[in-house]
Amino acid sequence: MQWTYQLTIPTTLNQQTVRDCLKQWLLPKRIQGQLRQGRRLWVNQLPASVATLVHTGDQLTLQFVPTDFRTPTSNYLPDSAATVAILYQDQDLLVVNKPAGVKSHPNQPGEVGSILNHLAAYLAPAGQAPYMVHRLDQMTSGAMLVALNPVVVPILDRLISTKQIRRSYYAWVRGHFEATQGQFTAAIGRHPTDKRKRWIDVPGAQSAITDYQVIRTTPHQSLVKLTLQTGRTHQLRVHLAASGHPIIGDPLYDNAASTAPRLMLHAIQLHLQRPFSTDTIDVQAPLPALFSDDSQIESF
Fold first, then answer.
1. Any idea what DSSP says for residue 252?
2. What is the pLDDT of residues 167-199, one digit of tens each?
């Protein structure tokens, strides 16, 4: 098993070294070293080193092997592909529209029924397999990014951490905000008494930043757009609950959760920076019909 990439050098990398290119493409140093030591670099089909200069239009070939990666194989058991709704797909990644109530990934060996199990079935006829990049909580719906090979997993991870991939959500929350937009900055860590939960400003809390914008309101609730600047566990749910505006239907943070049929949180958009490219793509996940029914929302 191997993965070969043939990349055309863009004008922005003219007269740079191969090492500069690999660094620009966010390939981890460990994998750069593996390529160098394994002599798996070619420029215009001739053997190259990381010190080789490249020019606009040159063809740089990279050959990856399983030992380059900590998780070279995807071992999710295939399940029915009937629930898979693909929003975007190319040779390296896809974005799936995850339904509420379905797990992102299995938690136990042999478990099925998650999105990654369904994607394993969907991708199998093409000889591909899914690799997890980020997850959505089970009751959250919407756009979820999945890698199609181990090469791009660390690159996508770094693109997310450097905010070159941005995730936006819509949420129905309780109450009204004083300002129509703003930012939550409270650090988030483990709840001191409840292992299931996270909370703000607790010992060991990590920095967390969420931007919000009010889209519209009902007499007692608000629809807000949320953009993650960091990716802490339960970040959106905790920031909103701590502000006095829990997400409607949240079983952990909304005291009136039993009145709603689901957690009213939907991943509406992914702004993607494609690996090994300067191309960016915006992928939208259609808003569930329930999110547009203000009169029904007000009854929760």
1. T
2. 999 999 999 999 999 999 999 999 999 999 999
- Tokens at 273, concatenated: 């920076």
Per-residue HEC secondary structure of 271-291 comes to EEECCCCCCEEEEECCCCHHH
Please report the domains of the chain, with CATH numbers, ordered by start residue: 3-68 (3.10.290.10), 70-158 (3.30.2350.10), 166-268+291-298 (3.30.2350.10)
Q: Is the pLDDT of residue 82 over 80?
A: no
pLDDT band at 286 (very low <50, low <70, confident <90, very high): very high
Structure tokens belonging to residue 242: 């701590």
CA distance 288 to 292: 7
H or E element that contains 121: helix 115-123
CA distance 239 to 226: 11
List 68, 79, 92, 137, catalytic entry: 137
What residues contact 275, with CB distance under 8 A and at least 6 apart? 25, 26, 92, 93, 151, 152, 155, 156, 159
If you count them, how many residues does the chain have?
A: 300
Helix (H, G, I), strand (E, B) or coil at 53: strand
Whether 137 is a known active-site residue: answer yes
